[in-house]
Design goal:
It is built from 11 helices and 15 strands. With 344 residues, it is of the alpha/beta class. Strands 7-8-9-10-11-12-13-14 form an 8-stranded parallel barrel, surrounded by 7 helices. The structure holds phosphoenolpyruvate (PEP) and manganese (II) ion.
């Protein structure tokens, strides 16, 4: 349940009225003061908070989860200020963002060379992960702590916003320490709700990737946490789901882009690199995603894919020439749809 309050003090007062008058009720309370209005969020035995009780006590309920699933995510009144690299997201400005870079950080030289070449062609945010979750414990797990320093150095030397993946609270603290612009919660962690709460509280814009075994509603519910515990700084990402199809790494759910767009007021990202796992499919599927309404494309690029640590994400990684082609193909769609890149 969500109660709209005048300010923090009123939220505290309402909390105390409820706990005193409904002594047997089991509730959790959370006060969110990040928006123009203050919201008291309550879960637990909310069926005890009847309309009569709320009315008698002058409590202004704006949402009950007994009636609906979502309050914040598709609420146009909640003023969202989602920072994507160098801009604040505005669904009406027809801008396309490109987040590109290698899967994981391997060494400073390849990282810097990749970032430098991407910057020459045009890119909005540079991505590279200090650590990687791998299905097999024998696959390279990333270089760890020093990776955060490398990323911070790239940000400074090339003056480019950066993105890194987080696995735990410690990583979120590192992201804060190194002034990382965007953090990512990977598909394998989309339902790690403790991590989600910490990311939400950090207020760093977070890319939330749809779990490979999850559906759109589960993704939206996970994203709603960012509004309850933070200020809604979240980007929804379609990165392919697991189906019986095994000719591609994952099945990129193109219609999810449209569904998420229509059922949230959040920026929607498409990741055809993991979505297909096949280098040759990355450009066409990303093109389709922009046509479906994606605001952001995330793509894996390496200065020299042949040199990347294998197997890793070698088969889906574009080289610089292919990245150039991606940008020029997307530019055709931009012209057709009256859109433009946010870095041009
Ligand atoms: C990635 O972005 O490199 C990644 C591992 O993505 P996902 O969590 O979608 O597998
Ligand atoms: Mn990857």
């Amino acid at each position: 349940m969500v109660i709209e309050c005048k300010n923090y003090e009123e939220a505290l007062k309402i909390k105390s009225i409820i706990t005193k008058r409904i002594k047997k009720g089991i509730f959790n309370f959370f006060i969110n003061d990040n928006y123009e209005k203050t919201y008291l969020i309550i879960n637990g035995q909310i069926d005890l908070l009847t309309d009569e009780f709320l009315h008698e006590n002058n409590i202004n309920k704006v949402f009950s989860s007994l009636e609906k699933d979502f309050f914040f995510i598709n609420n146009e009144v909640i003023n969202k200020k989602i920072k994507i690299g160098n801009r604040i997201y505005n669904p009406n400005d027809n801008l396309i963002t490109i987040v590109a870079g290698p899967c994981e950080i391997e060494d400073y030289e390849s990282l810097y060379e990749t970032a430098k070449e991407l910057k020459k062609i045009g890119v909005s945010v540079f991505r590279a992960m200090p650590e990687k979750p791998r299905t097999s414990p024998y696959n390279f797990q990333g270089i760890g702590d020093i990776g955060w320093e490398y990323l911070a150095k790239i940000k400074e030397e090339l003056d480019i916003p950066v993105l890194a993946e987080v696995f735990c609270e410690e990583d979120i603290n590192k992201a804060k320490k190194y002034n990382i612009d965007l953090i990512q919660i990977g598909a394998r962690n989309m339902q790690n709700y403790n991590l989600i709460k910490k990311a939400a509280q950090s207020k760093i814009t977070t890319v939330l990737k749809k779990g490979m075994w999850c559906n759109n509603i589960q993704l939206l519910k996970a994203a709603e946490y960012f509004f309850v515990y933070g200020n809604g700084n979240v980007i929804l990402c379609e990165r392919g789901i697991q189906t019986q199809e095994n000719t591609t790494r994952n099945t990129f759910d193109i219609s999810a882009i449209k569904y998420l767009k229509e059922n949230s007021s959040l920026p929607i990202m498409a990741d055809a690199s993991h979505g297909t796992g096949i280098r040759e499919y990355v450009i066409p599927v990303n093109t389709a995603a922009v046509l479906m309404g994606a605001d952001i494309i995330e793509v894996e690029v390496h200065i020299e894919p042949n040199r990347t640590i294998k197997p890793g994400d070698f088969y889906q990684m574009l080289n610089i020439e292919q990245y150039k082609n991606l940008i020029s193909e997307l530019n055709k769609i931009n012209n057709l749809k009256n859109k433009r890149f946010d870095f041009m």
